[in-house]
């Protein structure tokens, strides 16, 4: 396969994201990275659960958390996971415009999620004086949720970069794997969030 | 890497149909995920359940939801995902040990 | 080297200027050149760590010595451990994996050449960062384990350098792990099934899995330490509800798999050496593979045996004790398989084989004391004494370092194109081997007599004088061994002849390429017909690999400077992290460095880097 065929294919194969060796490598590499991320987040979750009652006289999780906001955030992130599935669906059908559209929606939902998270953090800090430094619980909470938020931020920047870069030239064998790896990463962020809302917020409310 | 002249590799109506059915299943899994989320939040908001039982249920719902993500949204059920599955399972095992260690053996 | 192959940046030249060579290495993505960088970097830090070890032994030469001050001694022991583990042993192993593993599976490069280059630069600059602490107000002094609260309350910036330096170097290692995994899974030559892979490739594979799952725990631990020291969080601050045991768990959840990361590759390369120099196929290949897997699996479930005296209670201690002892079973399988490989073989003893032979008793002693310290009740006696020092030096020096020397003697022709001098090699082995046992065997007894580790001085007439003196004398012998080795390397580089492709009458695929191989490794990917594929061709075929493809254009990755720039960004940012506690102006360095790194990532993401092709005509031209 020549360079030209990779960048300007006359016709795309059935699964453009895994048609080249580079595509296959990216696919596998990202999955393994996610395997490692599992342990990374597990370490953070473990530290959080170990320290969740160490409030040092500050507000406890029952007093802090409001379920409405978290529910809204959950639905947004969950929906963005579905929209990126839609984007990959259109990629498999070689419909670049629709893919970009659904990726755009994914990005917007991600930005919305991030906005709500920032609002939530400022709310805790200004209303409750609950900060990164106020107690071990605070440190663990902001680290865990913040690491997840950092992953969301990185994902959004990544998405914007590949969307803008490829906006004018359509799908090819070089960029299809990039979209696909992004989508896998994005799903994984949602996987982590499922445990964040379960362990941090819901279990925090149960006590 | 051979030239892509093989017609089997091209996008056909068969593949389009297959992609469509796949998408349908994905929408169904999304609905299931939303439902399990709602149940989880409802259980906590209403406070109808005993603490231990609630935590148990929350975990089952979370694991189910994550299974949908992995197997449907991330296509882990499909062919060619043996190695990803191995690594995710191994990662989950390491993650379990890590969290278990941190939770169970830090305070005593 | 009459004709250097023209890749994009290096033209056809006789002798290139230093600048051109430097630029070539800064931008290289070739697995062999990246391996060179790992080996040079690892060797540099190995010498540095060795000097630190010698300072420790001089300090402990006589009772109540004051060769170094107490504070400086703490810095020296911390840096000796950290440097040897993270900056010497691991990079040297990663270097050999980089050099040999693609050759053993018939790949032209690794799966992610860009990440490979990024990984090596992260290691080198991370190591430099850590050692910068010597010049900026003192090195870390909380031990290589950096237990909180000692590490969180240690004054100055030493421990900050520890956290940031290891964070940078660790990220590089994680990338290499993923890279090797994908390479082995996706890029094996036709016919190279999993159960035909040489054992070194197998152990590279399993080690990479360990890296993938162990390093994230260290990443988190170091982040928590950074947050506590630099941003005022309270993870380990008991006054605000923190818990210092969290650090111990995170560190050892990483740290125990880490010792298997250090030993498994060495098990692999010893298997190659025993089989090659016994002229027999490896005894029990399948059991070797599964024993490796079993060690890796168990290795994740034993971390708390470093924490028996923390007070986890008898049940937890017992579980971890039993799990630890279970690791002796797969390790024993390996030892007996090596012995059986030699049994009845046509054994040829040269310097590579000498290291392998010396390894078996040395490592077995280390394993045996491992069972002793795994016994909980007895461990209360051994804990934090020189017995433990002796134990882990017997495994890490007697295992990993001897393995590195064996591997270097074995693969030197493949990596650098010269065969190391045999006489000098044997001198290296005997001085180092005798010195090693002198240094560390006596330490078992020093430990049993109650000498604690990490102490600056010991008192006269407590039965420790002679032992420590002998131990220090051994360090002298080890130093001589290392110096002779370095002399050997320089000597053969200047005076040695170009090595043959297959100087040892080898069995595996790497010996079919030239020494050193062309940067594309093979003109035509070879077809693999079984385990020990070259040996099969030697005994059943014409001694050459059958090509699996017609001669055609070869796709190769382009060289790039971006990994270096990205790493430089993280490096600058690291200083910002460390010093923003003193002056807010350092935030400029923090964010500036991050911006450089992120911009480099963006450029990488936006440019189309589809590599280049070596045409058929060029390949044919070289055949002449």
From TrEMBL, chain A:
Entry annotated with the keyword Metal-binding: no
MF annotations from Gene Ontology: cytochrome-c oxidase activity
SUPFAM superfamilies found in the cross-reference section: Cytochrome c oxidase subunit III-like
Keywords: Cell membrane, Membrane, Transmembrane, Transmembrane helix
GO biological process terms on file: aerobic electron transport chain
Ranges that cross the membrane: 28-49, 69-89, 101-119, 139-164, 185-204
Superkingdom of this protein's organism: Bacteria
Family: Belongs to the cytochrome c oxidase subunit 3 family.
Name of this chain's protein: Cytochrome (Ubi)quinol oxidase subunit III
TrEMBL record, chain B:
Cellular localisation: Cell membrane
TM region(s), chain numbering: 26-46, 52-73, 85-107
GO CC terms in record: plasma membrane
Keyword Metal-binding in annotation: no
Keywords: Cell membrane, Membrane, Transmembrane, Transmembrane helix
Organism domain of life: Bacteria
Protein topology in the membrane: Multi-pass membrane protein
The protein, known as: DUF2768 family protein
Species of origin: Cerasibacillus terrae
